[in-house]
User: Fold this.
Amino acid sequence: MSVAEKETGRIEAFSDGVFAIAITLLVLDLKVSAPAGSEGLAYKLVGAWPSFVAFLNSFATILVIWINHHNLFNLITRSDCKFMLANGLLLLCVTFLPFPTSLVAEYYGHPGEATAAILYTGTFLMMAFAFNILWRYASYKHQLLGRNVTAKEVKSINRQYLVGPVFYGLAFVLAFVNVSVSLVLTIVLMLFYAATASTSRET
Amino acid sequence: MSVAEKETGRIEAFSDGVFAIAITLLVLDLKVSAPAGSEGLAYKLVGAWPSFVAFLNSFATILVIWINHHNLFNLITRSDCKFMLANGLLLLCVTFLPFPTSLVAEYYGHPGEATAAILYTGTFLMMAFAFNILWRYASYKHQLLGRNVTAKEVKSINRQYLVGPVFYGLAFVLAFVNVSVSLVLTIVLMLFYAATASTSRET
Amino acid sequence: MSVAEKETGRIEAFSDGVFAIAITLLVLDLKVSAPAGSEGLAYKLVGAWPSFVAFLNSFATILVIWINHHNLFNLITRSDCKFMLANGLLLLCVTFLPFPTSLVAEYYGHPGEATAAILYTGTFLMMAFAFNILWRYASYKHQLLGRNVTAKEVKSINRQYLVGPVFYGLAFVLAFVNVSVSLVLTIVLMLFYAATASTSRET
Amino acid sequence: MSVAEKETGRIEAFSDGVFAIAITLLVLDLKVSAPAGSEGLAYKLVGAWPSFVAFLNSFATILVIWINHHNLFNLITRSDCKFMLANGLLLLCVTFLPFPTSLVAEYYGHPGEATAAILYTGTFLMMAFAFNILWRYASYKHQLLGRNVTAKEVKSINRQYLVGPVFYGLAFVLAFVNVSVSLVLTIVLMLFYAATASTSRET
Assistant:
């Protein structure tokens, strides 16, 4: 391995570690109270459905981000410290995600749900920005890309990457108006990304 | 390393991270109350035995799944995004496992233990399904397998992989009828997998 | 990389993950109560000294185990599933360690401290046994060792590895008699291993 | 890969694991109370601003340390057990960091904030010392450095590494006198390191 390959290798390893931990920590917010009182466990679990939806949505989103991150690093072969900081910004959003996830789970249907949804969609929006910064820095003048990456591919990814800021921006704005619609939009976006991630490599 | 090898390499690394974290988070559910009152610590620990059994069972099951995952990736040499999503489904079950584990530990012997056991065995059943999806997708028309993998090997693994859905399905059904028998069956299955995992490579 | 190297490589990676997480989870048991009442923070921190000693001791012990594990895998070049299970037993002890660590921290100086110390030293004893099983299985008839490992080296490690079971066994027995002496012995053993680990490679 | 490269490779992997986990565990200290009472969520979040500042500062500091660790291991190509212990000392500080971070977040603006700040800046100071020990041990008589590292580079890094102990020492002393100034200095230092890390490789 060349020094450069070792470099991106270690960034990938560190990022994978952060993704893996953040995705696993989400489970810590699934909690029901200890056995006591007359309320049955099944009833409690059903009542905690926003926790499960938030868990699934955040899990799937981090997974899709990881797949995209993975695909990106098939194109990027070099690294420098600014790039590492941009990657760090993305990781910051990923590690932060369990917090707004637990807020949405706890506050959905209670006063304060709008605030929780704003923070939740805002984190996704930040993530989309961070991903764009990462990619646009790496692809700027082709500085960190592999030789085999064509200008056409770069353009196609540029276009694809606009989806995130635009639609997560919409979800963010919707959170001020209608919490449920805003949260459903984040689920739709996650499904869209899962679908495009699974086809993008076959074209 | 070829691009393909790098690809499966990173999937393995990410999966290993998730396995390692999920297996280690299980310990966070082992808790006894602070020193207070007349009840001795030994007494409390003995009273918490379902926690310890659940911890050991979940730990060993994740370990066995990891060994099987590891063996599988000795046969799989390529990857695509659908495969990554199938792998993500398996990881979802693995990261989710600490939650039903803690429910079983807390609710065993209390009203609600059937619900906890249904969720626990249901998670194992989902895991068995996810493993089958992963393998059957990878081995379908030999698309992601290495060249040295024979059709006979594929058939043998196909047969072996039926054990999971069938017997975890049985444990799941039993959870509605008799919680203890159902939970003991998951322990027996874990021991069976540990035993076959440790012999499979010697044939 | 050959298949065999890839195999031990992934075992090391998974083990490193577990070591890294277990060593980092220890910090979660360091807690002082929120600001309230007249008791100062400095006073609370000083009163929590057993937590800090237990944290340091467990951290250093896992670190030393990791170094030894690392050194061991410089000698071991192949793997099979029984070996993976033996390694799993060691990892079980490592992931379990934060629990008795928190018990010792909480119960030291309270009734029940003997029970906590028995579980703590018992976990170390199990770890020493697991390490011996791992090594003796790998070195049995030289089956998993590299070609460059001499019979003399094997014998020397065999002897060295007796220290663990004997002295952690002693600490375990002492926990029934005198908790403080038993815990101090585990610290002395950790320092001994740190010292020998740091010289062993220079001879 | 030679044995030596495998060695530093595994140290890097283990360290990356610890960095990744410590950086991700920080989020666990972000908590607001459950929906209850008349106090709004937005109000609670604003009131918890010291938690967010402490989270961001600790996150960014660990990220910068990771980048520096990463750069260091581009120069270091060999390892021995003393080096591993020195690296362990650095990791001890990193895993410990979430604890003083949560103390600062909780105690800022309350009696005891000086104690919290002393522990927080003291941890940074220890980290700076550990980094110096690691580097000075590795570069002593060039014993663990790669052949391509020049004496001039070593001298330049020696000088650069004095910044940490001096300025974190200052922050530590200031914590006894003025908590806010001391904490702001740690943020300034983090920004300084981020800035120098991102330029250092371009000269």
Observations:
- Chain B has a mean pLDDT of 86.
